[in-house]
Design goal:
87 residues
Length: 87
């Protein structure tokens, strides 16, 4: 194996660990805004994995549609809802 192949495998492994961590933290987080931000981080990790596996178009679509549109929509919906105090 060449250095480039080893480096790609290392980057893929790091991204997989980041993806698993952000997915677990998204579920385990008590604050909904933190969960939304962890969701955006997991979308970003998936986009980089797509780009790393030479599916650049799919990675760009992931960035624009999911991070750009869905992520902002979720964050705006969370920020515009009111929170009950004490219950």
């Amino acid at each position: 194996m060449t250095f480039g192949e080893n480096f790609e495998m290392l980057v893929f492994a790091v991204l997989a660990i980041v993806l698993l961590f952000t997915a677990i933290m998204m579920i385990a987080s008590k604050e909904i805004v933190h969960s939304a931000l962890y969701l955006l981080a997991s979308f970003a990790a998936v986009a980089v994995i797509y780009i790393l596996t030479r599916a650049a178009f799919l990675g760009i679509v992931q960035i624009f549609v999911y991070i750009g549109a869905i992520g902002v929509l979720i964050l705006f919906a969370v920020m515009l809802t009111t929170r009950e105090v004490g219950g």
